[in-house]
Every structure is written in structure tokens, then in C-alpha cells.
């Protein structure tokens, strides 16, 4: 609009030839060529800007793809490092478990052998103690039988019924005495 207003203020032109006008300060130039030149320059500039923008977009996309690739590689390396640590921890745990199992197996074998030796020694000691405790009892029983036979031979003149009662009492007393000695020996041996 400013261009129209400026034209209106100018003094009227007089045509010098067909299609051309003359102003007081010179001939009138058709603005169409100038406008076309400006529009062509603006279009060229926009095309240049689009080409630059397209080039810039390609560059940004290339940078982004390169950055994404580097991120993927870094993440892969990080995950591989974590896996390596996990595998190392599992291997170390397996080694520790194997070592512990071997140590425990050796300890179990050692303890079992010690227990076997101890039980054998205790059984031998118990046998010796029992034999030692029973020996006087067996000697006393043998002495009692010898005395019984001698006594029986001396009493041959006694009536048979009396002999039967006496033998029964003697046998009964011998059995009671032997049982008492055995119980005393067992209490002595196992009381320790």
C-alpha cells in the first residue's frame, strides 16, 4: 500500500510513447521485472535454505545414527562386563563349594576313623574290664561247686530227702550268690 500511496503523490505522468509514462523526475519503469527478479531471488534463497536444511538434516541423522551405534556398543560392552563378573562369581562360588566339599569329606573321614578307633578301644577296654570283673565271680563259683561236691561226698550217710533239700538250698544259695556277684561286677564295670 505504501507503493500505491507514493505513486498517487507523484505528479501525473504524461505518456511519451505507447505503454511508457514519463514522470517529472524521469521515465516510469515497470516494476514487474523488478518484482519478478525479487521473487526469483526469494525462491532461489528458499531453495538454497531447503537444500541446506536437507543437508543439515542428513548430517544430524548421520550424527544421531553414529551416536546411537556408539550407545548400543557401549551398552553391549557394559552388559558383557556384567555377565563376565557374574560368570566369574559363579566360577568362584563353584571353586569355594568344591574346596569346602573336599575339606568336609576329609574331616568326615578323619572323624569317622577317630570314632572307629575310639569305639574299638572302648569295646576292648569294656571287654577287659568285664573279664576282670567276672573272673573272681567265676573262680568263686568254681570253688563253690568244688565245696559242694566235697560236701556231698561227706554227707552220703544223710537221708536222701535231707540231701535233696540241702542240695536244693545249696544250689539256690549258689545261684543267688553268683547272681549277686554278677550284678556287682556289672555295676562296677558300667558304673564307671
Verbal overview:
This protein has three helices and three strands, in the order H-E-E-E-H-H. It has a three-stranded antiparallel beta sheet with strand order 1-2-3, with no helix packed on it. It has one domain (28-190). It has helices at residues 2-9, 31-154, 160-190; strands at residues 14-17, 20-23, 26-27.
Brief account:
The chain has helices at 2-9, 31-154, 160-190, and strands at residues 14-17, 20-23, 26-27. It is mainly alpha-helical and 192 residues long. The chain has one domain (28-190).
C-alpha-based Rg, rounded: 66 Å
Report the span from N to C terminus.
133 Å
- Please give the count of helices: 3
Strand arrangement, largest sheet? 1-2-3
Could you name the ranges where pLDDT drops below 50 across 5 or more consecutive residues? 1-18
> What is the subunit arrangement here?
single chain
Sum up the overall morphology in one term: rod-shaped
Q: Averaged pLDDT, please?
A: 80
Query: Largest beta sheet, briefly?
Result: 3 strands, antiparallel
Estimated share of beta-strand residues: 5-15%
Portion of residues within helices = over 70%
The string of secondary-structure elements, in order, is: HEEEHH
Domains (count): 1
**Could you give the count of β-strands?**
3
Structural class: mainly alpha
Amino acid at each position: 500500500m505504501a507503493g500505491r500511496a507514493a505513486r498517487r503523490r507523484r505528479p501525473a505522468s504524461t505518456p511519451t510513447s505507447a505503454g511508457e509514462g514519463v514522470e517529472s523526475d524521469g521515465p516510469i519503469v515497470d516494476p514487474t521485472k523488478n518484482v519478478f527478479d525479487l521473487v526469483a531471488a526469494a525462491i532461489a534463497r528458499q531453495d538454497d535454505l531447503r537444500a541446506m536444511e536437507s543437508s543439515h538434516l542428513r548430517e544430524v541423522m548421520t550424527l544421531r545414527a553414529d551416536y546411537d551405534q556408539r550407545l548400543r556398543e557401549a551398552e553391549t560392552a557394559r552388559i558383557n562386563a556384567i555377565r563376565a563378573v557374574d560368570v566369574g562369581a559363579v566360577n568362584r562360588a563353584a571353586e569355594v563349594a568344591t574346596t569346602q566339599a573336599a575339606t568336609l569329606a576329609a574331616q568326615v573321614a578323619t572323624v569317622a576313623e577317630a570314632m572307629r578307633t575310639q569305639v574299638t578301644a572302648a569295646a576292648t577296654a569294656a571287654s577287659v574290664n568285664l573279664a576282670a570283673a567276672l573272673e573272681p565271680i567265676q573262680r568263686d563259683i568254681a570253688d563253690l561247686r568244688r565245696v559242694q561236691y566235697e560236701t556231698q561226698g561227706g554227707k552220703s550217710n544223710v537221708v536222701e530227702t535231707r540231701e535233696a533239700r540241702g542240695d536244693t538250698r545249696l544250689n539256690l544259695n549258689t545261684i543267688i550268690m553268683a547272681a549277686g556277684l554278677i550284678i556287682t561286677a556289672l555295676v562296677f564295670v558300667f558304673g564307671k
